[in-house]
Fold these 3 entries.
Entry 1:
Amino acid sequence: MGLILFYPSPIFEKEDVMSEEFNQKLEKWIVEYSEKDEAAKNWSQKFYGTGFTSFGSNQTLHKNEPLFQELAQGLIPSIKEFFQELKAVEPKEIYCVGMWCSINKPKSMHPRHIHPMSACSGTYYVNADPEMGNIFIHDPYDNRQMGIIFKPDSPLAFDTYAVPVKSRKVIMFPGWVSHSVQQNMSDKDRIGVSFNFQVRYDGSQAQQTQSDL
Ligand SMILES: [Fe+2]
């Protein structure tokens, strides 16, 4: 008998998931796309402040563009590793259902949100460092406001944790994990590709998952 901790927030981070050569090509593609794609530019001007994103105009870059297809495939081993560590039921298939690119300008920030119905979401950082804005993971007990009674090394000490970003690093989590992005305090643009993956099971595994719910 003793301490039981329920409801952890699972976050998975992995560096160097794609090659430097691939990353340079991807950065060049995104910068050029941000200069010429009118639909993405228009949506970004209306809804994305000074930054650029294809979120409102094209979330299927993994279907249309070879570099993003390669990235989606390249992320799958990390997602498998993440699921294994979480003791998830092994899916028959892990597949990308959404992928979009963003350029976040100096002083920009991104408000708290989740990615509904996504088994694994996150961002692959194309060009990023901690000065350009880390990702914040928020306490699922909204407004708990009791952190003051815990020591700093307690898992309950803070209601927000920052995970440092870095170029060629991926940070991922189940879509229900509440997160936001810290303000970009540098004078450089942070560039990233965000994604949603879903899973498919065969009949027996799906039944097992259903009965576990
Ligand atoms: Fe997000």
Entry 2:
Amino acid sequence: MAKAKTGATANGVNGAVAHHENLPAGVFQQNHLKKLDALLPELDIPNRKYGDLTKDDYIELYRLLYMTREVEARLTRLYRQGKIVGGVYLSKGTEAIAVASGYSLNRDTDWLFPMHRDLGAHMSFGQRPMKLYAQYMGRAAGPTRGRDGNTHMSDKSRRIVGMISHLGSMIPVAVGAAIGCRMQGKKVVSLTFIGDGGASIGDFHEGLNFAAVAHAPFVLIIENNQYAYSTPIVAQYGAAKIIDRAIGYGIPGEVVDGNNIYAVYETVKKAVDRARNGGGPTMIEAVTMRMRGHSEHDDHFYVPKDLLEKWAERDPILRAQRFLEKSGHLKEKARLKLEEDTIAFIEAEIEEASASPMPDTGDLVSSVYA
Ligand SMILES: Cc1ncc(C[n+]2csc(CCOP(=O)(O)OP(=O)(O)O)c2C)c(N)n1
Ligand SMILES: [Mg+2]
């Protein structure tokens, strides 16, 4: 088949193209970005109040956001040093979504089902970086005690259920957990994530439909980071927004600027409160941009550079810093100290994980079922 000429008009619904490799210099992504921009209200207003957040919460959310970026940056370093078992899937540029979502839940009662890019949710839900590093390095101290190298990490003691790799499959499981807790008479919420790519899987539809019919206390966060591996969203769905599907399920759906951690918190917390109070499930589409490759072995050469530059201006850390400075919640001097302390904490956590033992070989197959 002849390759489309650069600049050729691609066919398809709403400007979508069938073969993304034929995109003329990112024109279609740019058009889509304009559509997305129109969806995102300007949220850099100083002294804007976000939900029930207190001054301490604003600062704590910033600390968790900054920590997530720095924890991940050091994972890359360990990966390049050959100390990591398996792949490393970073959330650079999208951290605010996982961090704010985990923070919206009740750590003592709710259930969290993170996906491969949601390290920040583990931490904002109370997990120690040491445990995460131990997991990535295959140590006995990791949540799977060295059984799995990377993202498939459950910690039952914290009600964190690790993903399995099949995209979408965690949605029905998380819905089932929500219903199960309700049957036990508990006011508990379960929350999981899915990517823009995973949102096209059958389990997504089945899980959401079931959640709606059962009125489950469940929240789904769609992390729309514009790409599923190398496939851009223009080649993934014809609708302007994934969230339009909520109408079909008969449940509330909201779009949020995924690069504003406080806005994500406000939106997710509202959904969590509604679920807890018997109001049923909610879908949230958090719009963002994946700023690294699919995983650290991928240089994401297929992403137009101008798209990345545009999204770099929306960096969630810079946005939060600006908000904190303008609102007076955390001025630069105090912020730099907080950042310095956070780095020292992370380095100590890495040291502890690195010094911790590998699993005992005599215990290799305990807790392994397949
Ligand atoms: C059912 C299924 N199909 C394909 C894959 C391989 N795969 C793993 S991650 C990924 C990309 C997922 O993209 P998206 O859902 O947008 O999430 P993102 O990685 O962008 O956060 C693919 C294709 C898989 N794990 N499961
Ligand atoms: Mg994606």
Entry 3:
Amino acid sequence: MDKNIITVFGATGAQGGSVADIFLTDPALTIDWTVRAVTRDIQKDSSKNLAKRGAEVVAADLNDAASIRKAIDGSTAVFAVTNYWESMDAAKEITQGKALVDAAAATPTVKHFIWSSLLDVKKLSNGALPNVYHFDSKAAVESYARSLPDFPATFFMPGFYLSNLPGQTIRQFEPNGPWTMTFPIKDSAPMPYFDTNDTGLFVKAIVLNRDSVLGKRIYGATEYITPKEIISQFQEVFPEAGKTAAYNQVPPEAYKSLLKGAGMPDFAAQELLENFLLFEQFGYFGGASLDETHALLGEDKEKLTTWKKHARESKKWGVEMK
Ligand SMILES: NC(=O)c1ccc[n+]([C@@H]2O[C@H](COP(=O)([O-])OP(=O)(O)OC[C@H]3O[C@@H](n4cnc5c(N)ncnc54)[C@H](OP(=O)(O)O)[C@@H]3O)[C@@H](O)[C@H]2O)c1
């Protein structure tokens, strides 16, 4: 019997790459599934590498609806993610997301559409945080998918990427200087953290439990952690670097200045500021518990990456860490 095809958008990127990887390697999946990996450039190394590993690599552009329909044709499941940060244009991201939904809805073989979503922050905050465009745009696509009668969708909600921390949010401002983590929020704010390499574990659980997760949100996070705990675990992993490590809460305007000093446009600095205030004021997942998602993962829950493991293995610190 022919195997089911999962079409993976963003297959050369962080989330989609992890989904492609697990469907190419996990025996519980390879028995029934093959991978169709979508990219704009089938000639680049990451695309060729996917082909070498057994994926069918196809070209499509999220700005070209006909190419999306062609890429989805004949597949049973679709994993769809868009990259807001490439254009920083929410309207464009919504158009891309709706084109993905429309293509899946028009393809009779598609039994499951998995959308990499985020919450509507404007709504969650009653308008107090109106500028977190990359969340609201993904939520608009989720809402569109929910509006289509009988459209079989599940919404994967990725947590805060751990890859934002090493060398980026936790960094030395001068050589051999103290390691500092800088955010505009209290050190007790809960942050659901996520290693993008774990995306596949969540999507595996979504696909294997299709009937019970249709219409649901699945929360992609290992656990909630606070900035204070992030620093104390950093100190455990790197006792030498940890001696001077500290959390530095800065006022909102100072945080924006930091981002703008690094070349970010004003609207994006405001967007990221509000994105962080979300953790403290309303909750990144609106206070949702991770228990139901973790129960769905079964034994795979133990494989979720911890902050300590991510810190130990990260290549992004820029110096040798001790
Ligand atoms: N940073 C965080 O903490 C965080 C947390 C939650 C969610 N997110 C969201 O994660 C999303 C990015 O996901 P990611 O990290 O997996 O992305 P990524 O690693 O930057 O990769 C982007 C992927 O999207 C594909 N892509 C982009 N534009 C495309 C287009 N026009 N047509 C076809 N494919 C296109 C790229 O494919 P090719 O280049 O090969 O064509 C690539 O595979 C963003 O929208 C962001 O808002 C981020």
